[in-house]
Amino acid sequence: MSKQWFFAGVSFVVLAMLAVIPSKAQIPPGTGERAVIPFDFIVRGRTLPAGTYTIRRVNDLSDVLLIESRNLQSHVFFETEPLRFRNAAERSELIFHRYGDTCFLREIRIAGDDEGRGLATSRAEKVLQRESASNTNMTSTTVAVELH
Length: 148
Prior knowledge:
Radius of gyration: 16 Å
Shape: globular
Strand order of the largest sheet: 7-10-9-8-11
Order of helices and strands: HEEEEEEEEEEHE
Number of helices: 2
């Protein structure tokens, strides 16, 4: 039991430290960016329906983002990590990985910035990656949805 408390404490300290490290790629706090996503998608294990969504940072110093539907009935908080690109993004967009009919949110890119935000690969996506690699009938593609 004491090991669990120790690891919980260490995890809390690490997350607190990461929250204060400034990030170059910035999703605006407050109103955020809007996207019309024409398909159901998965974020942090939760399936969100197609619709209009807003994505924003929880606060100025956090790598935690919130994606919420226009009607506020669907929302998910999720952590991100910095991603570095060779060139600055030409437009702001959400990047999804699609396996058959299943889509996972994977990246957020901001126009004019060579750094974006990425989401960790979930267990469910890893399973579909393996299935896609061994099954010629299941294709894997990348889908981009523009942020406004």
